[in-house]
Structures are given as structure tokens and as C-alpha cells.
Amino acid sequence: MSFHNGYVGGGPRLSGAGRELDLAMRIATLLPSATEIVAALGLAGEIVAITHECDFPPEIRDRPVVVRPRVNSHLASAAIDAAVEGALRRGESLYVLDADALSAARPDLIITQDLCDVCALPSLDVEGMAARLPGPPRVLRLHPHTLEGVLCDIETVGRAAGRGDEARRLVAALRTRIAVVATACCAPPRRPTPRVFCMEWLDPPFCSGHWMPEIVERAGGREVIGVHGRPSFRVEWDAIVAAAPEVVVLTVCGFDVRRTCAELPAVAARPEWRALPAVAAGRVYATDGSAFFSRSGPRLVEGLEIMAAILHPEVAARLISPDAAAAAGRSTPAGAWVRVGAS
Q: Helix (H, G, I), strand (E, B), or coil: what is residue 273?
């Protein structure tokens, strides 16, 4: 339950008798997954600062942006990779934290991450800044590497934000959906297990990592390059060809379907690409990686359902019916993925 439907900042919550229940918390979410977790717990109204990438749910987009990138995200994949590598070699942060804007937001709780210095502002940068703020605010660091880690982080955020019960209910619902997918795709009678390559970056190619191999496995496939619970890494084209994936799923970090499809032709022109069994069979899929695969939040479970629909379309209708979706207050995401076929 949310006590605040709009963006209102701090102040006491009162019971019907006027008795103070607890204090409204001002929360700065310095990575998109944290924003989505906090909102899913009914606390969107208490988010007072976000990053440039925080875009879901839509009602938080008017919040002050306190983190911005140093690298131009509109560059082509190869240029972004070169800029990132150059900054890391020089020991430079990839993000700028606006100290004045964060101070003006007056957060009680700042949520950051230890997972990836490329994907979001490192927690050490945040902690140094937070120590100089009034209070100072509490800093909560998230660092999940698996689906279980994501679910545990949701409960951790819930406890920190005074929404422990809501977090437990949310996690229970997510576990149920995960189990439905696993039963549909992996329980007897056993279906064929396709060889899958999830591509997290296009140029140069990177495999997926962390929770992605697990998502593929629970959706009834086998990730042939990425390693469960470990970060993504750069892959040479000859290794991709040797892995002979039967399905290629483009889960590009930070890209939606349109951006992925726009950059695909440069990759598809390579002879190695045309040699892949997945390409020959027309089983290449572009997804909204940013929304459903890159962020360690509740929508990863939608990503799992999308992966199951891609790998085993014959069971997709059983994952969640339209009536069940309506009852749960959610729907199958439009534009979440598209089959791009042979190139």
C-alpha cells in the first residue's frame, strides 16, 4: 500500500486517530533497478532523486536527476565501448554525481550498487558524498549476481524503507511466476533444450552474465557462453561460431528493441554472423534489454517470461493468461521483443 500517490517529500504518516505511525522516508535511487524496486513496494511518492536512466514507472520521471553519464549514450556501440575503455584506463568515473542536487533532495536513504562500475555510479563515490550531507543519510548497496540475489535485495530494500511485509509479498508473487515458467518449460515431458547465446553488447560482442544464464535455463534453454553468477565479458567471433547457438537473443545493456535493431545491420554483415545456426534458422530475437534483462529488479521476471516465449512459443500462452494478467494488475509488455530472422 502506498501512503503517497504523488511526489510529496517528507512528513509524518498519521493513523485515522491522528496518531503518528512512522516517518515518510525521502529516498534517492541511484540506479534504475532500485527505482523500480522502491516503486514496486508502493513508495514511488517518496523517491526524491533519480538517475538519467530511471524511466520506470513513468510517474517518477519528473524527479530531480542527480546522476548523469560522461559518455554520450547516442554513439554507436563500438564508439561507446571505446569511450568506456578509455575512461576506465584513465581511472575516471563514467558518471557525474550532482552534489548540489543530491543535497537539495535531502534524502534519508540512498540506494546504490556494487555490481558494475560501467552500468551505474560506484558505491564508493556515493558514500563519500553522502558522508558530507546533513544527517547523514543511510547508504544501502545492492550487489545481486543471481535471480535469488535480486529477490533477496528486494527484501533488503523493503526492510530499509519500512516495507518489509510488502517486500515479502512481492517476492512471494515473483517466486510463483518463476515456478510457473520453470514448470511450463522444464517439467516432463521434457522439451528440446536449445543452445542459446544472449548477446549483451553488439560491437564488440559481449556475452551475458550474472542472472542471464539462469534465466535461459529456467526458460528451458542452455546458455552456451555466458557463465551463471559471473559478469559478462567480451567474446571473440570465432568463439561464438564454435559455440554454434541455435537461438541468439539480443539483450543489449541499455538498449530497447528499436535501438538494437538499428545497430544490428553492422553486426549482421559479418561472415561469422551468417555462419551461426541461429541466423540460418531465422531464430534471432531483439529484446528490450534495458527494461527486462539488464536491471536487477522485479521486471527480470517479465524477462524470464519473455525468454520462455522466445525459446518455447508453444507454452507461452500458459505462462500467464490475459485474465490472470488483468487480475494481477499487469499485462504482457508490448514491444518487448521481436524476431528479426535471417540476415
A: helix
68-109 residue pLDDT tens: 998 998 999 999 999 999 988 888 888 889 999 999 999 999
Q: Around Cβ 5, how many Cβ atoms within 10 Å?
A: 10
Q: What is the dihedral of CA 304, 308, 310, 311, to 10 degrees?
A: 130
Amino acid letter for position 31: L
DSSP state letter for 335: T
Give percent above pLDDT 90 in the chain. Answer: 70
- Supply the DSSP string of 42-75, one letter for each residue: T-GGGEEEEETT---SGGGTTSPEEEEESS-TTS
Q: At 71, phi and psi to the nearest 5?
A: -95, 135
233, 209 Cβ separation under 8 angstroms: yes
Contact between 305 and 181 under an 8 Å Cβ cutoff? The reply is yes
Cell readout for 58 is: 513513468
DSSP state, 234? B
pTM of the model: 0.88
Question: How is residue 314 annotated by DSSP?
Answer: G
Query: Scanning the structure block, which residue is given the C-alpha cell 518455447?
Result: 312
List CB contacts of 222: < 8 A, sequence separation 6 or more: 193, 194, 195, 196, 216
